[in-house]
Amino acid sequence: MGLTITVNNYDSFDIGYISFMNFRLELAKIYNAKLGEMYRRWAFGNLPYTPEKPLSDKEFEEFKNIAGDLLIFLAHPDTEGSFTPSESRKIYLTIKDLKMDYRISETYHGQGDFNVFDRLKKMFYHSWKNRRKVIFS
Questions:
Q1: Contact predicate 8/119, CB 8 Å
Q2: Predicted TM-score (pTM) of this structure
Q3: How far is residue 99's CA from residue 41's CA, in Å, rounded to a whole number?
Q4: Which of 7, 35, 45, 72 is an S-S bond match for 41, by CB 3.0 to 4.6 Å?
Q5: Among the listed ranges 1-10, 19-28, 57-66, 75-84, which one has the minimum average pLDDT value?
């Protein structure tokens, strides 16, 4: 089981839920080191049996301010839903200059090894420019 990310008539790939969460944790850290630490606490802090301390209300406000438009992506459910072309534009403009090598090997569609970050950047750009949704399913 996992997540399928699709832009209709353009591209699609599958990624496991744990791999996707690890990807988002790395993206938050690359965007801003403090955001990476806060995102980990936000994502895991309220789970039972975790050493992560939840964010206080004040820290959560700081977290939202640091994340800016990246929060659209970081807070999106990883099981379903979509990003509008407008949201895709905001996400793309936020991440377009970042560099990240997060590779997975997807054998289900025979696509082999690829960089998730580069592929997602292209998908968000295509979504924005061609008025198509990025779909999570």
A1: no
A2: 0.88
A3: 24
A4: 45
A5: 1-10
